[in-house]
Amino acid sequence: MRIYRPESAEEAVKLRHEIEGSAYLAGGTEVMRLGSSLAGCEAVIDINGLPLSGIREEDGRIVIGALTTLEEIRNSLLVPEFIRQSAYADASLQLRNAATIGGNFALRRNDGYMVPAILASEAVLSIMCSKGLKEKSAAEYFGKKECRALVLSFSIDKDRTGRYERIARSSHSHAAVTAAKSNGVYAYAVSGSGIAFGDEDSWKDIQYADDLTGSADYKRYLASVIFRG
Ligand SMILES: Cc1cc2nc3c(=O)[nH]c(=O)nc-3n(C[C@H](O)[C@H](O)[C@H](O)COP(=O)(O)OP(=O)(O)OC[C@H]3O[C@@H](n4cnc5c(N)ncnc54)[C@H](O)[C@@H]3O)c2cc1C
What we know:
This protein is about 25% helix and about 30% strand. By secondary structure, it is an alpha+beta fold. Strand 11 and strand 12 form a beta hairpin. Flavin-adenine dinucleotide binds next to strand 2, helix 4, helix 5 and strand 8.
């Protein structure tokens, strides 16, 4: 595996387009994970030298750099509470110390730690693509199956409130269902099955499947009641 260290976001995106099968290296917890489909990739573009970390308040919004770790998000009082919970609830301390919000969202895993909270918060992503700097809603970015753009930051209304829920067999078990709601936007992530977001009933759009966290019927039931009560 070759490792590239770009000096700018533009250079990173250029490399990502030029090298087929490459990946960005952020926290590396997926790219370097044993058994990951990315572990055997041709080349990685290490973005850790780029100034993409940190959390700041700007014009009534909270801007979270793509390289900010889950642990930093968990510890920031600037970040809306339900987003902090999503950074904390699922991952171990070791993972939280390395894993980044950018890597987590870009992966689009159906058990994505922060994915439901980011979607429900209607975050706006600042991204660098081959045509230059752009802003995209989280929903728009997420809708594209593969995107070679580099996510630079996530911007969220500083007063955004919401609720985050997670159901797993134990606090350290892989979550069967995680979900978030905020200002009437609902997002559901169901292990081994899929992610849906939109209105309260959007959980119905998921194709439920059996996996180690439970049967399809069990997870469908969990998703249907997760915000009841
Ligand atoms: C034991 C173990 C259990 C795990 N369980 C879960 C789980 O339950 N849920 C879950 O969601 N994840 C899980 N993961 C995977 C991983 O830890 C997280 O998804 C993590 O948040 C990925 O972030 P990272 O910074 O480490 O990404 P990396 O591994 O560095 O990169 C992952 C992907 O994101 C892309 N990427 C990274 N940064 C950017 C960016 N700024 N812009 C665009 N693309 C980018 C890369 O190209 C790559 O494709 C697990 C990993 C391990 C080792």
